[in-house]
Amino acid sequence: MPDPIQFPSNEPTLASRSIFKGRVVGLRVDDVRLPDGKTGTREIIEHADAVVVAPLDAKGRVLLVRQYRKPIEQALLELPAGGLDGNESPADGAIRELQEEIGHYPGTLTPLGGFYAAPGYCQEFLHLFLATDLRPSKLAHDEDEHIEVETVPLDEALAMVESGAIRDAKSVAGLLRVWRHLMRAERPDGGS
C-alpha cells in the first residue's frame, strides 16, 4: 500500500472495536476526533490488499471473466482479480490469479500502480498489472468461483466501459489505465 498523503484535518482514532471477522472481510467501528473537535464514528470494512490484472493476448484482446456477484444479484464482466494470500507479493498474486481464473501465465507482467476499492468505508488497495506474452498454465480456481472467460478486443472493451456494459469499478479503472499506458508506449516521444 502506498504512503498516505498527509492532510491537515485527519481523524485520530479514539477507540476501535471489532464487530465481525469473516473469511474475506472484517468490520470494525472506530470512534474518531473530527477536525472541528467533535467526535464521530466510522464503520470500516477490513480487507487485505488485492490485485487486478489486464491480460492482453498477442492479438490485442483482453481476457475478461464473467462471474455472478451476489451483492448485486447479477453477473459482471470484469478483469481477473483477487486477494493476496498471506505474505504473497502483488506480482505473485497477479500470476496466481491469472492461472486460476483464465488459465494463463504471463511472460511479461508490468506493474501500473493501483487504487483503493472504496476508500469511504474500505481499506482494500488494488495493485494493477498489465499481463502480456500469455501462455497456457492452469491452476485450480477457488471452489466457490464459477467463472466464464471472454476474450474481447481492447477497443471493444473500452467501448463497453463507455456504454456501461462493463461497470465494475476495478475493471473500468484498470482498462482505462492500461489504455493510457499503451497509448504512451506507442508515442515516439513517450509523452502524455
Folded structure, characterized:
The chain has 192 residues and is an alpha+beta fold. 21% of the residues lie in helices and 42% in strands. The protein has three helices and ten strands; from the N terminus they run βββββββαβββαα. The protein has helices at residues 90-101, 154-163, 169-186; strands at 13-21, 26-33, 39-46, 50-55, 61-69, 74-78, 81-83, 104-116, 125-136, 147-153. The strands form three sheets. A four-stranded mixed sheet has the order 7-4-9-8, with helices on both faces. A three-stranded antiparallel sheet has the order 1-2-3, with no helix packed on it. A hairpin with a 4-residue loop joins β1 (13-21) and β2 (26-33). α2 (154-163) crosses α3. The longest helix is centred in the last third of the chain and has 18 residues, at 169-186. It is globular. The two termini are 26 Å apart. The model has no long low-confidence stretch (mean pLDDT 92).
Shape: globular
Distance between the termini: 26 Å
Give the helix proportion (percent range): 10-25%
Largest sheet: 4 strands, mixed
Number of strands: 10
H and E order:
EEEEEEEHEEEHH
| Average of the residue pLDDT scores | 92
Structure class: alpha+beta
Main sheet: strand order = 7-4-9-8
User: What is the radius of gyration computed over CA atoms, rounded to a whole number of angstroms?
Assistant: 19 Å
Q: What is the count of DSSP helices, taking H or I runs of 4+ residues?
A: 3
Assembly state of the chains shown: single chain
Q: Regions with pLDDT < 50 over 5+ consecutive residues?
A: none
Taken as a percent bin, the fraction of beta residues is 35-45%
